[in-house]
Amino acid sequence: MVVKAQEVFGTVLTAMVTPFTSDGTKIDYDAAAKLANDLVDLGNNGLVVNGTTGESPTTDEHEKLELLKAVIDAVGSRAKVVAGAGSNDTAHSILLAKDAQKAGAHGLLVVTPYYNKPPQAGIYAHMVAVADSTDLPVMIYDIPGRSGVPINNDTMLQLAQHPKIIANKDAKGDPWAASQIMAQSDLAYYSGDDPLNLALLAIGAVGVVSVTGHIVADRHKLMVEAMQNNDVKTAREINRSLVPITEGIMTRAGGAIMVKAALDQLGRTGGGSLRLPLVPATDDQRRVLKEDLIKGGFSL
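Predicted structure:
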């Protein structure tokens, strides 16, 4: 099952930002296609489109579908394209999942329903309903800091028995729970929390779904390969080099804001405007980010 997950989703994925026009009113699909190519060239063998970092709460169904098509057309022959199909409305998630299958996505990312805080039985029923709605393999996304509720171990083990639910993007911040699930099931784990990438790889995760991968996927690729080869020393060295980058992008003002600022400062595609309620990084945040990028090995 682990091999299957790696083949389906890849091992180094970036949760891709969504480029907008300067006023934020429209998605810049040409820029999205270029960004997708840039990310694959950098070392990603998978991309997540229409995730939280892609500002999915503020894009409509038509925009999501057209963005997914643009990315699949750009890189679908050389990387896996995973479509975010998360919602706190099961019917809406099913609609997004079906659209993703029609567009040619390789898999689905389905986050725990957020805000309405369903019980564990509701989380299970939601995930199964979405998984049953298409032929696509599913990576569930456990991120209680955003969703408000964790996926408990018993629920996760139940979900792992579903033939199309083959992976978990883990942003729970609980490596012990991850260890327990990996010991008791074939569910493939992906680190969904950049500060814990090495820790989760060390206990058996097969890859990462990253935000910082927008600019350091090359290093993530080397770290994943080092762990696959039991070269812990090299993996540690790479991880230490990433600390300033992770601090700058993940702890200052939220991933989408700071990664767009980083792309802008590095002169790469994908930086620029956001949609409310997100706002651009402040001058002070950009100044500190520049210092972090330099500490992390970039020349600015």
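Summary: The longest helix spans residues 232-250.
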